[in-house]
Specification:
Elements (H helix, E strand, L loop, with lengths): L8 H7 L1 H20 L1 H31 L1 H21 L7 H10 L1
Helix pairs in contact: 2-3
């Protein structure tokens, strides 16, 4: 019996070179900003704590519901993956790291 493994559309989007490299770049800028600006660090850390708290509450609240909606979520994920397939074919730039995209824009 072979198991069918379904890709998660979120995992696929995050693994696109343009998305992952842009995330890395923005994460670096964010960290450097926090390190170099003490007042912004305080604000950022407060915002981060707020997001963690909200996420924990949301996950605890949504978990029972998500279990019941698993078949519908799987269908939505499958449709989203098919849509992403079309977008990836239409926009090959998604398969390039952000640095390469920036360089090409500078040339134009």
């Amino acid at each position: 019996m072979s198991e069918v493994i379904s890709d998660s559309v979120v995992e696929r989007v995050v693994s696109l070179p343009l998305v992952s490299s842009t995330y890395g770049l923005m994460s670096s800028v964010y960290s450097n900003t926090k390190d170099n600006h003490p007042y912004l660090r305080t604000v950022c850390e407060a915002a981060e704590q707020g997001v963690k708290t909200i996420t924990t509450v949301a996950l605890n609240t949504a978990s029972p519901i998500l279990g019941k909606l698993e078949p519908q979520i799987a269908i939505a994920n499958d449709l989203a993956c098919k849509g992403l397939d079309r977008i990836e074919k239409t926009l090959p730039i998604l398969h390039q790291p952000s640095e390469q995209t920036i360089q090409k824009c500078k040339v134009l």
